[in-house]
Amino acid sequence: MTTTSQSTSRQSIENTYPSRDGTQLFYRAWIPEKPRRGAMLLFHRGHEHSGRWQETVDTLGLDDLPVFAWDARGHGRSPGERGWASDLATVISDVDAFVKWISSHHGIPVEEMTVVATSVGAVIVSAWVHDYAPKIRALVLAVPAFRVRLYVPFAIELLRLRQVLLGPGFVKSYVKGRMLTHDPVEAQRYAEDPLIFPQIAVNMLLDLFDTSTRLIADAGAIDVPTLVLVAGSDWVVSQDAQHEFYDRLSSPVKRLVVLPGFYHAIFHEKERHLVVEKIREFFLDPEVEPRKRAFLLDADRRGYTHDEFERLRGPGSFVYTLLRWVMATVGRLSQGIRLGLESGFDSGVMLDYVYENR
Is 347 helix (H, G, I), strand (E, B) or coil? Predict the structure, then answer.
């Protein structure tokens, strides 16, 4: 399905791509007549959709750059129950399918793609970069939602208990437009947009928390050039988690920009042109040009992975020794453990097995 919608400047083409489970998911594309090399891929925050990127695309000023923006399943014009997916792993695999579709269908190498994601979308994309190790050109994480401010004591523990006792359910967001932006016009647009919905499934919120926890702990495994944008007055997510993730990144080229006074929806704030300028500067930075990937064939002898391994088996490593013995003996009763021991726990075969999530 392909249709065209007219904007005040750039046209967006609407299309769909197939996810791994066969679901046709929606995306928009801004494709110039004479495109430059590369592309920019945009991933929206929770509750939102790809149509909210139009002004950003116009303001970016890279009119010869192809830009693509998806609607996550259960969001915008993509199918699925609103605010729900079976698990976050499915959504992460949707990212991989989307990137591969853009690469094959539009003829753009993954190595020439710059990925921009915001809030929940930034966590999903970070997990994709961490788990799938794509050779993308650069990564921009805007106000990543590594820790959502729930404001209720023991909220995560209570939600886990609720899911066990009551099964699937939804949490309604308390966040109003005026808590996202100082711009009253944008706040009103947010409130009146029929494609924006206020809920998120409990299982997705818990998966978001657990995925963020492992990403912060293992951010050193990410070595893609990365720009992190932090809102100085964010009511929605924690800045501390964003700083901790940034500090642990192994990226040889990384930048962190704090935007004083900004609320969470930085792409819809009064001074949103400053956000776009920072992204444009990072995109055009010579240090971010396509580069050779780190040589990882000796990662067992040096580098982040080696150092992590040495920490695990260092002094006081009784738990590591015990776990290794258990996995090598009774652990073989598990199909997943057997597969890891035979093929490698970081192999493509093992990753496919994990993402089946059965």
Answer: coil
In the numeric block, which tokens belong to residue 76? 């915008």
Amino acid identity of 142?
A: A
pLDDT in tens, 51-103: 999 999 999 999 999 999 999 999 999 999 999 999 999 999 999 999 999 99
Residue 18 forms beta bridges with which residues? 24
**pLDDT value of position 124:** 98
24-30: strand order across its sheet: 3-5, 12-18, 24-30, 67-70, 39-43, 113-118, 138-142, 226-231, 254-259
CA distance 229 to 272: 12
Which run of H or of E encompasses 170? strand 170-172
Q: How many Cβ atoms from other residues are within 10 Å of residue 122's Cβ?
A: 27
- Interacting residues of 13 by C-beta distance below 8 A, sequence separation 6+: 2, 3, 4, 28, 29, 30, 31
Both tokens of residue 88?
């976050």
pTM score, two decimals?
0.87
**pLDDT reading at 228 higher than 50:** yes
What pLDDT is attached to residue 3? 41
